[in-house]
Specification:
Elements (H helix, E strand, L loop, with lengths): L13 H13 L5 E6 L7 H16 L4 E6 L7 H10 L4 E3 L24 H8 L2 H14 L1 E5 L2 E9 L14 E4 L3 H9 L3 E4 L5 H6 L5 E4 L1 H6 L8 E11 L2 E4 H6 L2 H35 L3 E3 L4 H6 L1 H11 L1 H8 L4
Helix pairs in contact: 2-10, 12-13
Amino acid sequence: MSHNTHPVFLKAPLAMALSLAMAAAAQAGTERVIDVSLPLGPDSQQGIGVLKFGEELERLSEGRLSIDPHYDNALGAEREVVEGMGFGIVDAGISSTGPMGGFVDEFLLFDLPYIFENHDHAYAFLDSEHGEHLAQLAEEGMNVKILAWMENGFRHNTNSVRELNHPDDLRGINHRTQESRVQVDTWEALGANATPMAWTEVYTALQQGVMDSQENPLPTIYDVNFYEVQDYLNMTQHVYSPAPLMMGLDLFNSFSEEDQAIILEAAQLALPVQREASQELEQRYLVQLAELGMTVTEPELDPFREAVQPVIEKWAPTVGEDLVEAAINFEY
């Protein structure tokens, strides 16, 4: 059987498929295609990282292990995919950390505003013992194995009302947040009227003027054409979003030690490629979004940092005071 065709068992009923998959994976030397879920498409910062992972996996395993990527949430929304990996229904996937805070409080760290100053700060923290500790908590609380701390990037505000030069400029603006209490608190502290809303409804809400404002990394803002319904891009850089590449823990543990080592090595080889691509896309889309007619503003960030201090103080006990402090003050 060639390594890029599906084994017959994937067409069998799910329970049967799972037990066969586990059995097949348990025998080193058996060929295995790993289904991988992605929220965005193949040209995104996520796609570039996952495809590099697949390439290295095939090379290191001499064709025995390969991936089948499923783009644009085809296997379910991020929360369902994270749950699916834990239950053994989804093999592997990349997800923002947003839904993970619902399972493990410590992951709310990545919802907190102005924790990381720049990419180097975030990478150094995630690649340290703190990243390992969070990965351990994911194994215990979600039954998933974090293979590599890939990224979505820093999040920025867009709106259709005005430039943001100061938090006061957010007053009276109806802002959409992800379904996270931390994010609602953050945007209310900055002066906006914050409303949590499912991702699938956001574009229409902005188009119809039900919402004025949203926030996302630049590649996502470009990818979903927010420039069609938003006039202002404000480089608020308020949150750093990792996008961990993960595998169901039971599936990972079913591989031989040799294959586990290959999977981890492939992920580590893909990591710098993914992060570099993410930063390059950020620069490219900043230029392209301006060319598409968005007014780009780079506000002084100190007043924003100051305005959200109460949010960090409120949530630090939930996330863990030590973890929050370690992140903010991490030497890099």
